[in-house]
């Protein structure tokens, strides 16, 4: 069955009893891990319990196609339901997983993790079509989901967030759920329990996240600095940022430029048009944003957005060289940004 994105978190913490296997997939690697861990904890108290949690690798499954079924049928020595974890599942595993779902021995929950899968993926279609399976998509948090994540992570410690700090956090988190949670935990330690996070607190603590690395990529590209954009892109990859996440961030940046460009062309003063953006442009990048606005025309922005959307579409194809496709799009945008009106 398909699990809607709006239900994904709820389902991950409380999966249906009829479901024997769950596929957690998508471009947000941190969110994939987070939801796979939540599914595991919904069944076992200790996800590190070797008697109740088994790990299966692609190479082991290739050698023994019945391995998932064998592990699912096994009985824990200490009693209780078991979980079978299968990380980085390839398309080739679809056959073994289908065999398990057709028979479904034992009562273990099988949790499968995969990267971004297209709608034509055999693995994804298998979990979407089977009644005793579920497919949970994991895409980068939008502004609403990120607001909810920030509040839910901090409220347990009695921590509130000022409006200015929230604007900064939503602008600089969200590229990867795992990294966002790590940054929020660091921020909570920085301010302490039962306190209010100010803008200065947010800037001081959340100053080196993956989102800021992505900002380096997209601002350099939009400014026409291809060399700096390429270096920042390499650094983002080293931090584990997914190419699709970068392309989406670049697309959002272009759309923000489009919105301001349209307002300015319609007679709105430039400063007022920029300040009307929500979330606001990070103050350290405001000057660079204004400079980009003087370079990009409406027609160029439309062309740039089409390039980014096409690159993202190609990246979602199974087996596509996503890093190379993203790099090419960054280079194309840099070249457009280097051209004057």
Could you name the CATH class of the largest domain? Alpha Beta
Number of domains: 3
Radius of gyration: 22 Å
Q: Which overall shape is indicated by the principal axes computed on the Cα atoms? A: globular
Structure class: alpha/beta
Q: Which H/E pattern describes the elements?
A: HEHEHHEHEHEHEHHEHHHHHHHH
Tally the beta strands: 7
How many distinct helices?
17
The CATH superfamily of the largest domain appears as: P-loop containing nucleotide triphosphate hydrolases
In CATH, the architecture of the largest domain is 3-Layer(aba) Sandwich
Biggest beta sheet summary: 5 strands, parallel
Strand numbers in spatial order across the main sheet: 2-3-4-1-5
Percentage of residues in helical conformation = 55-70%
Describe the structure.
With 341 residues, the protein is an alpha/beta fold. The chain folds into three domains: 5-137, Rossmann fold (3-Layer(aba) Sandwich), CATH 3.40.50.300; 143-205, Helicase, Ruva Protein, domain 3 (Orthogonal Bundle), CATH 1.10.8; 210-338, Zinc Finger, Delta Prime, domain 3, CATH 1.20.272. Helix content is 57%, strand content 8%. The protein is built from 17 helices and seven strands. The strands form two sheets. Strands 2-3-4-1-5 form a five-stranded parallel β-sheet, sandwiched between helices. A two-stranded parallel ribbon has the order 6-7. Helix 11 packs antiparallel against helix 12 (226-238), helix 13 packs antiparallel against helix 16 (298-315) and helix 13 runs parallel beside helix 17 (322-338).
């Amino acid at each position: 069955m398909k699990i809607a994105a709006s239900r994904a978190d709820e389902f991950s913490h409380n999966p249906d009893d009829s479901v024997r296997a769950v596929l957690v997939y998508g471009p947000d690697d941190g969110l994939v891990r987070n939801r796979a861990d939540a599914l595991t904890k919904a069944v076992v108290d200790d996800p590190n319990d070797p008697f109740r949690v088994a790990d299966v690798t692609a190479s082991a499954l290739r050698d023994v196609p019945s391995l998932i079924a064998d592990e699912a049928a096994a009985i824990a020595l200490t009693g209780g339901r078991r979980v079978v974890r299968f990380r980085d599942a390839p398309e080739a595993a679809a056959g073994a997983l289908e065999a398990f779902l057709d028979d479904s021995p034992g009562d273990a929950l099988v949790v499968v993790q995969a990267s971004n899968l297209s709608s034509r993926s055999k693995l994804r279609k298998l979990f979407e079509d089977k009644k005793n399976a579920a497919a949970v998509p994991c895409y980068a948090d939008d502004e609403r989901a990120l607001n909810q994540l920030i509040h839910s992570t901090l409220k347990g410690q009695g921590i509130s967030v000022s409006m200015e700090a929230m604007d900064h956090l939503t602008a600089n988190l969200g590229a990867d759920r795992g990294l966002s949670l790590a940054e929020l935990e660091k921020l909570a330690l920085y301010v302490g329990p039962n306190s209010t996070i100010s803008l200065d607190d947010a800037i001081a603590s959340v100053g080196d996240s993956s989102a800021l690395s992505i900002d380096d990529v997209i601002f350099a590209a939009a400014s026409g600095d291809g060399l700096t954009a390429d270096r920042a892109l390499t650094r983002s990859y080293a931090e584990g940022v997914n190419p699709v996440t970068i392309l989406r961030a670049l697309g959002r940046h272009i759309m923000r430029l489009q919105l301001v460009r349209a307002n300015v062309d319609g007679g709105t003063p430039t400063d007022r048009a920029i300040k009307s953006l929500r979330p606001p442009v990070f103050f350290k990048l405001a000057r660079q944003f204004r400079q980009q606005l003087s370079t990009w025309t409406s027609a160029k922005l439309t062309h740039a957005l089409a390039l980014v959307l096409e690159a993202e579409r190609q990246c979602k194809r199974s087996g596509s060289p996503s890093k190379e496709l993203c790099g090419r799009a960054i280079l194309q945008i840099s070249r457009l940004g280097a051209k004057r009106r």
